[in-house]
């Protein structure tokens, strides 16, 4: 009987072989010597040298001899074989390892996503990255929450505003739940992006400046909340109940699209009045 483990091991072996064989030695500055190359692509010893691991280890991997490479080895192989982001993720999955962040952290909105945020009007929408930096928003979101464009870029962070901005501190009816959920998300993001120094510095600032944040951060709750409901106590319209959805684009996975919708008829009328103003 063929088990899932055997299938995965054999697929890992076949995938490494096919990725190695498609590479052109000339792209690596290696001599062609076609008469000495019995198979296309790079030799195993050449991949081993590029990845900084032994040729014997490459041989055993490609023969499907039950090895489970570490995350460091998988990363080295991905670089040596010049894998695309999708191929890299696939290799990590086959090796049953968790990929590290690739260093491509979003600090500006991808133009197609910025246009999508605008096109979602009249639904309030905004684009954030994993650390809650606000990258793009439409007019409806600005009228609902805050005029983000009037803020310095360093303050355009949803958690910073919730903790530090006087108007935002009073906006949420159930503020404790909202902040706790935000902290649980930040803890997950912090673990997934250990290389993100600005995120670490931001969390340190919150711990230092906000006693509630420090206490709740210490509870070590972890949760990525992509759907739910929030109630806002808006100064112009009163309480508005909103359902929210957070979507992650496949092509820009460090960006998160947040969309609000009215949760009931009364809230829909209030939101319509607010956004029409």
From TrEMBL:
GO terms for molecular function: DNA binding. It comes from the Bacteria. Pfam families: HTH_31, MLTR_LBD. Residues 34-88 form the HTH cro/C1-type domain. InterPro entries: Cro/C1-type_HTH, Lambda_DNA-bd_dom_sf, MLTR_LBD. This is Helix-turn-helix transcriptional regulator. It comes from Amycolatopsis rhizosphaerae.
